[in-house]
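EamA family transporter: C-alpha cells wanted.
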Amino acid sequence: MSLPRTKNSTGHLMALVTILIWGTTFISTKILLRSFTPIEILFVRFVIGYLALLLLYPRRFRLQNVQTEWLFVGAGVSGIALYYLLENIALTFTTASNVGIIITLAPFFTALLSAVFLEAEKPKKSFYLGFLTAIGGVALISFNGSTVEFNPMGDLLALLAAGAWSVYSILTRKISQVNLPTIQTTRRVFLYGIIVMIPMLFLLDFNLKGSQFSSFTAVGNILFLGFGASALCFVTWNRAVALLGAVKTSVYIYLVPVVTVAASVLILQEPLTLILVLGTSLTLLGLWLSQTTWSK
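Answer:
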C-alpha cells in the first residue's frame, strides 16, 4: 500500500514544482520580448533544453519500433511546436486574458481524449464539476474587472493550442508505458519539436543576432527558460504524467494563473484585489474537486 502512495506523492510534487516554474515564466518572457521575437525565444529555449538533456543523459537513444517513434513525433509536434506557436500567435490577435482562459480548457480536452484512448483514466462527474469551478476562478483572475473582448481568430488559435496540449498529454502517457528513461524520452520529443520549428523560422520573424545576448539580463532569462522551464519542467511534467496519469496531471494547469498572480504581487508589486482572491479560491477548489475524482 505504501508504494502507490509514494508514487502518487512524488507525481503530485513533480506536477506542482513544474507549475510553480511555468507560472513565473511570463516575467522572463516579458523581459526577453524587449529584444527577442516570440519565435526566437521559443526556438532558443528548446535548443538549450535539448542540449541540457543531452549533456545530462548522453546515452544514445535506440529505436524500439516505428509505432513508438511516431509517438515521439506526435508529442514533439503537438506539445513543443504547435502548442507554443499557436499560443504566441494567438496573443497577437486577442488579449492575454482570453488566451489564459481558453488554455485552461486543456484538462477538459484531455479528459475527453482519455475517455477514448485511455480507458483506464476515464474521469467521473466530480472532474467536470471541478473543471467548471476552476474555469470560473481563472476567469475572475484573468479579467479582474476588465471588459471581456472576443476575437474569433485569436480565440480559435488559443483553442487549438489547448487541443494541441491535450494531444501531447495523451501521447506522453503512452510514451511513459514504453518504460524508457524520462530524460531520454523528453530529449527525443524536444528533437522532433525543434525539427518541426525550423521551417517556421523562415516564415516568421526570426533574425537572431549575437548582440541580443549582450546583456546579463537577457542571458539569465533565456537560460532560465531553457534549463528551468524547458529541460527541467518537461522532465518533471512527463514523469508526473507517468505516475499520475494524463488527466490527473493536466488539472494542475488550473494553477498557472494562480502562480502568475502570486508572482505579479510579489515581484512586480501589482495590487491584490478581492476579485483575485476570490478567483484564486475558486481555482484551488476546482483543482481539489478534480483530484477527488480519483480517490477511493
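The chain has 13 helices and no strands. Residues 2-294 form one domain.

Cheers.
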